[in-house]
Write the structure tokens for this entry.
Amino acid sequence: MILGYESTRMEQIDSYSCMVGGLPVERQWPWEYKAGFSPADVIEEYTRPCRMVRDSAQVIYPPLSGLEKVEFKGIGTLEAFHTDGLRTLLKTMKIPNMKEKTLRYPGHVALMEILSAAGFFNKEKVRIGDQSLSPLEMTSAVLFPQWKMRPDEADFTVMRVAIAGRSGGNEVQRVFELFDQFDWKTRTTSMARTTGYTCSAVVRILAEGAVPRRGIVAPEHLGQMDGLFARVRDFLASRGVKLSGDL
């Protein structure tokens, strides 16, 4: 939605980058991670080829590649790595350079690379005694309970979106950041707040008949519609989910 909104304000967009992740406040060995959404989808992020756009051509990077250290105020150092998160943007936005990365505590990627290299994410079934199962099924059965968040476990969500191009005849780069934390009053995870409240805002807009487009409407399409992104942003802000940047 941010990118769609910016595409209506800028004459030209040359690059788009999104880094985002949900993490537990308390770092626990060995994973230093808890799944704020489906653990199966988390493992998909570690195994699915990553589609990006470079010099106007779609390219594919290996999962867990492109590792870099990123600093966030109030959090410290996190690591970012390629994931297949552009999705509809690959078809809807004609931007020469686009990438998406997931954020984790430093060291997490190395652990996932070991599991991947050792075959623990393989989907091909193997026979063990009179049972047949894949290494991925076994790995999932072991990891999912360890990655499950406790009811009293706090999490946070962090995101950084950077968009570069031309506006008003000048070269510009706009950076938007979000940092949200577990709500102790309502016992709501940050991942639920940032995703669920966004969905709730859009449902309200749809119920009012304020979305003129029919059929499949991608989030970036909503961002391009007059006034809709501002309404979603204000809805989130009223619940304490605040996005910073030149909006």
